[in-house]
TrEMBL record:
Residue spans crossing the bilayer: none
Name of the featured protein: Beta-glucosidase
Keyword Hydrolase included in the entry's annotation: yes
The keyword Hydrolase appears for this protein: yes
Family statement: Belongs to the glycosyl hydrolase 1 family.
Gene Ontology MF terms: beta-galactosidase activity
PANTHER family: GLYCOSYL HYDROLASE, LP05116P
Any Pfam family matching the protein: Glyco_hydro_1
Domain of life: Bacteria
Amino acid sequence: MIRRMATTNPIPRFPAGFLWGVSTSAHQIEGAADAREPSVWDAFTAEPGRVRDGSTAAVACDHVHRHREDVALLAGLGVDAYRFSVSWPRVRTPGGLDFYDRLVDDLCAAGVRPVPTLFHWDLPAGLDWLERSTAERFAEYVGEVAGRLGDRVTKWITLNEPAEHTLLGHALGVHAPGRELLFDALPAAHHQLLAHGLAVRALRASGAGDIGIANSHGPTWPASPDRADVEAAGFYDLLLNRLFADPLLLGRYPEGVDELLPGDAGADLEVIAEPLDWYGVNYYAPTRVGAPRGTETDFGGVRMPAGLPFSVREIEGYPVTDFGWPVVPGALTELLTDFRARYGDRLPPVVITENGCSYEGLDDQDRIAYLDGHVRALHRALEAGVDVRGYFVWSLLDNFEWAEGYTRRFGLVHVDFETLRRTPKASYGWFREVLRAQRG
């Protein structure tokens, strides 16, 4: 039994209407792989050595068969909204949308607002983000989903983290589809951004509104004031932050990447920059970057080849999660205030679409400290003038953590992957009390 958390220093009050939620993704929790088409992740995990513990997501949390139990956990938690993703491979299967019909109905009945993400990395096998046609196919799929769910869904997310999907899946090969193209991976980034713009148009054509994207961002800290380190950090920031924000918010790519993109990229910017109702930010940690060291390095389990024009360095002086990521709540405030300064009135209202950490154990006091610090940092950004409208914890459930398999636990709810039993952790109780206090 999880004890109720005593609040000795209450979380500051957020504005009325602020959206509190939790997030998951289809491939990481759904299971029922035999009732959908295969995705690039199924092919990837079938290759020996790709996943740390040799596991797959064939069963995962078996959410497809246990979603009512999970909706009850959401209702018990007291969140306003649940961010989940729709599996494109499942929708391509006859009757595949029926599951999402049931899920959305059950969420609405429980008083939880459904917030679907339309692509969270599980690209159907046979499609390829290096091909422009995939963006067009995506828009067709989005129109189909909106036509089925749009009478009940009132908030939409097009893509999740095209930066990571490009970097880890197409440039460095540690995620599906497992390519190691380095800078030749950038067409995959452009085609995902094009898919986003086409999806916004498809959603609006169906009558949908309140549309955003979930982009991952974090401050980039130079390893030192030396010019070489500052320039390297600036280039890293361009690749991981500005490459995915500038086209959406400013209608242009940052200078220096144009020659690496497809020749027709400029003509697509009007579509990519379709106005957004809000801008989603996934935040986990800052990154410390210096000049290249000329040798291959390992960063958080990701092999960084020697030929890159930067090197990722350790951030010292902060606690780290079980994943080895530094815990720096203040960097969330820094990120949001910097974005407000950089983009000004072009930045729509912001929603934190993911924030969380990996820790073991049911009495997860480290997770509580992490979330407490980041919610307070978010409030400081509000006080500094950033228009923040919502906050989603990653994640509701322990799940299949991509190339880490089942070795990392991000959930507010513990999942026994042998029995699939769900057990709320101390952090679940803490977040429940935070939400009660916000409404009190």
